[in-house]
Design goal:
GO molecular function: sterol ester esterase activity
Strand order of the largest sheet: 1-2-4-3-5-6-7-8
Order of helices and strands: HEEHEHEHEHEHHHHHHEHEH
Number of domains: 1
Keywords: Endoplasmic reticulum, Hydrolase, Lipid droplet
Shape: globular
CATH topology: Rossmann fold
CATH superfamily: Alpha/Beta hydrolase fold, catalytic domain
EC number: 3.1.1.13
Radius of gyration: 20 Å
Helix content: 40-55%
Number of strands: 8
CATH architecture: 3-Layer(aba) Sandwich
CATH class: Alpha Beta
Subcellular location: Endoplasmic reticulum; Lipid droplet
Pfam family, one: LIDHydrolase
Length: about 350
């Protein structure tokens, strides 16, 4: 079986036989067991989805403890359920050796009945935890509280999650980051992008008008909500079913309001690309741009490729959409794990 090598890298990718084995295992095992937790982080309701080791703090120093953690930082809305299949394939691709976690954005979840969206406490809290800067601090607080400093990280960002990862790497340069994979990265000029021009007025001036219909829809039975989601996404030929239950979270006014508020700040604050942080961490970064992505158009890919000719910056030629988790989570996970084989197998 021939092996393919990326022209800008000496990483060896999965052979077709290895891909078939992974997919057959997934089909035979069904969904691997995952753990879903709701916690307060920065006093805000947060959902954490985990495949593999559930508590790195307690396991640190034990022989069976993993020295590597995959941490997924989602796009917006930052609902971790969208990434379930994507995470499952990553976990299986490395023979369940490394835990794979995803942490939601603060307030981008529907907490259980016994939890409020914000914790009532006298402890110091972020002034604006639901805003963009607050979400960066929220992820840093999560790492500090739940991940030992000696654990090596593979950070995987999607959309605005890529911006958050670059901010984390800038603010905490001693973090043990092996690689950061930035998928469909919205790291510059969001409001000037084709989709940004369309969404900026809605997010910045008209978002309050959306709250009343969402509130009314929230009273519908769950099965009706699920049917509505499937109807809205009916054009997708291979809709990932885990995304249906994830989308139902958006029938919560609080969850949607927090997502739209964060989005409004993205339009205003995500302006210039952080070239200094990219330059400082160039060897740790992998960028993956979409060929037809209206949030980060090909022009942005061409410009960053020009400015960083030695960086690992790739352009999708598979027609994968910006919201890849809806129908291509498995494909992107298999492709991404190919890129990471060498760095992880050398540990």
């Amino acid at each position: 079986m021939q092996e393919y090598r990326h022209p800008n890298s000496d990483r060896v990718t999965w052979t077709s036989d290895e891909k078939d084995t992974i997919m057959e295992t997934l089909s035979s095992e069904g969904r691997l067991e995952s753990l879903k937790e709701h916690i307060y982080c920065c006093n805000a309701a947060t959902e954490v989805l985990k495949f593999g080791q559930s508590n790195l703090l307690h396991a640190s120093g034990c022989e069976e403890s993993s020295s590597v953690l995959f941490l997924i930082i989602p796009g917006n809305p930052g609902i971790v359920g969208f990434y379930k299949t994507f995470m499952q394939v990553i976990y299986q691709s490395f023979d369940k050796k490394y835990p794979v976690w995803a942490v939601s954005h603060a307030g981008h979840c529907v907490p259980p009945d016994f939890m409020d969206m914000k914790e009532d406490t006298n402890d110091a809290e972020l002034e604006d935890v639901f805003g963009l800067n607050g979400q960066v601090e929220h992820k840093m607080a999560f790492l500090k509280q739940y991940v030992p400093r000696d654990v090596k990280l593979v950070l995987v960002g999607h959309s605005i999650g890529c911006y958050i990862i670059l901010e984390i790497m800038k603010r905490d340069p001693l973090l043990q980051v092996l690689k950061s994979v930035l998928l469909f990265p919205t790291i510059e000029r969001m409001a000037q992008s084709p989709q940004g021009k369309l969404m900026t007025p809605m997010l910045c001036r008209l978002r309050y008008a959306m709250y009343v219909p969402i509130y009314l829809l929230s009273f519908l039975p769950e099965r009706i909500k699920a049917s509505m989601v499937r109807l809205l996404l009916h054009r997708l030929q291979t809709l990932d079913e885990s995304c249906v239950s994830a989308t139902i979270n958006l029938f919560s006014v609080d969850c949607t309001a927090n997502a739209m508020y964060m989005g409004s700040q993205e339009m205003v604050q995500v302006m210039d690309r952080d070239n200094a942080t990219i330059q400082e961490n160039q060897e740790k970064l992998i960028f993956y741009y979409g060929e037809n992505d209206n949030w980060c158009p090909v022009q942005y890919y061409e410009e960053i490729k020009r400015d960083f000719p030695k960086a690992d910056i790739r352009l999708c030629n598979k027609g994968i959409r910006h919201a890849f988790v809806l129908d291509a989570g498995r494909d992107v996970a298999l492709m991404m794990t190919e890129w990471l084989q060498k760095v992880l197998h050398s540990l």
